[in-house]
Amino acid sequence: MALKPLENRTAVITGGASGIGLATACLLAEKGACVFIGDYELREENRELFQKLNIQQMECDVQSESDIKKLIEFAIEQGEGHLDILVNNAGVVMVNPITEISEEDWNRCINTNLKGPFFGCKHAIGQMQKQETGGSIINVSSNAGILPRRHDPVYSISKMALIALTKSLALCHAPDRIRVNAVCPGPVSNTGIINADLNEADNREELASQFISASPIAKSLNRMITPEEIAKSILYLASDDSEMITGTSIAIDGGKSLGVHA
Known about the structure:
With 262 residues, the chain is α/β, with parallel strands linked by helices. It has one domain: Rossmann fold (3-Layer(aba) Sandwich). The chain contains nine helices and seven strands, in the order βαβαβαβαβαβααααβ. The protein has helices at residues 19-30, 47-53, 65-78, 103-128, 153-173, 192-200, 204-213, 216-221, 227-238, and strands at 10-14, 34-39, 56-59, 85-88, 135-140, 178-185, 249-252. A seven-stranded parallel β-sheet has the order 3-2-1-4-5-6-7, with helices on both faces. α1 packs across α9 (227-238).
C-alpha cells in the first residue's frame, strides 16, 4: 500500500475549482488529506472527480472575510476539529499601467491577492495555535512577487506584499509550530489567467510562445509550467518533509525571475 503522507490532515484551498488550486486539491486528496475547496465560481465538471476524491466545496469570495471564515469553520467542523493545511491560492491578474488603474481595479486586485490571504491566515492561525502539531500555510504568490514587472504594477505590488506577509507571519508564529511559506510560479498553462489571455489574443500560438520564451528552462523544454508541477511543490511544503522550512519563497518559474536572459 502506497504511503499517504497527509493521512488525517485537513486542508483548505481557495481558488480550488480550476488551475493550480484544482491540481493541488486533487494531489493533496490523493495523498490522504481531507480537502475543502472554496471558489467564487464552482464548476459542475468537477463534481464527479470531487466525489471520487472526497473533496468538499463551498462558494467563497476571498474578498469577503466572512466567506473565508465560513469556509475555514466548515472545514474544521467537518475535519474532526482541526485544520492542518491552508493554501491561499485564489488570485486575479491586473495588467494596466498605473495611470489606467481605477480605485475599483485597485480594490479588486489587492482585496483578492492580499486581503484574502491575510484573512485566510488570520482564521487558520487562530485554529492552528490550539493544536500541538501547529500547521502549514502556503501562499501562492508569483514571480512578480520576486521581481516587479513594468506592465502590471498593481499585481506586482499585491504579490510582493504577499511574500512580505509570508515572512512576517512565519517569524511571528514559529513558536506555535505554524510554518508559512510561498510558491512563486511563472506562466502556468491551463489556468484561468493564462487561458483568458490566450483566448483574447490575435495570435494564440504567438502569445503562448512569448510566455514560454520568457523563462529560460521553459524555452529549452518548449513548454509552459503545469499546474501539477506547482501542486507538487505545495505538497512538499504542506508535508512533514519540509518541517524545518518556513518563511521561504520558492520560485517555480523556469528561471524567469533570475535576471536578464539575453
